[in-house]
Specification:
By secondary structure, the protein is α/β, with parallel strands linked by helices. It is built from 6 helices and 6 strands; from the N terminus they run βαβαβαβαβαβα. It has helices at 14-17, 32-44, 55-67, 86-95, 109-118, 131-142; strands at 4-5, 24-28, 48-52, 74-78, 103-108, 123-127. Strand 2, helix 2 and strand 3 (48-52) form a beta-alpha-beta unit.
Length: 154
């Protein structure tokens, strides 16, 4: 299994039971330090987080979540990754049927605007980005959105 899940989200059924969680965020980045830091920040703010190290692992993580009736409310996506990059992930993700979570492109600031547009991103985070910027973007895209997490209270 290539997808990594962290924290309480890793326990079977945890997502279904986690009605107090604000939203589920899929964090996709091949840089383990960035991925882990972003996940830690979001978890401290009571988001549920699933991590993946590249696009292929992210697609597998989406499948695993779907088996439990869950789906992310937002996807934080690095672009330059081995195995499957952010462009290919976004293309395959949008080919899938059903609802699609907003994508937030996380990449070097000089590329963020252009690359975000190329994958239809709802927002961009130019690396290096700060804690407050991260939380503001995620909150804006997930608050008041019941998303596809049927277990989450409106
Ligand atoms: Mg990268």
């Amino acid at each position: 299994m290539q997808a990594q899940q962290t924290n309480r989200a890793a326990a079977p059924g945890a997502l279904d039971a986690g009605t107090s969680r604000r939203a589920l965020v899929l964090v996709v980045d091949d840089d383990a330090a960035i991925r882990g830091t972003v996940a830690d920040i979001l978890e401290l703010e009571d988001y549920a987080v699933t991590q993946a190290m590249h696009g292929e692992a992210a697609l597998a993580a989406l499948d695993e979540l779907a088996e439990r009736g869950a789906a992310p409310d937002a996807i934080l996506l690095d672009m330059r990754m081995p195995v499957m990059d952010g462009w290919e992930f976004a293309r395959r993700y949008h080919e899938r049927s059903g609802a699609h979570a907003p994508i937030v492109v996380m990449t070097a600031a000089r590329d963020a605007g252009q690359w975000g547009g190329e994958v239809g991103a709802a927002a961009t985070l130019g690396k290096p980005f700060g804690l407050e910027e991260l939380l503001a973007v995620v909150e804006r895209l997930t608050s008041g959105n019941s998303g596809s997490r049927t277990a989450r209270a409106a």
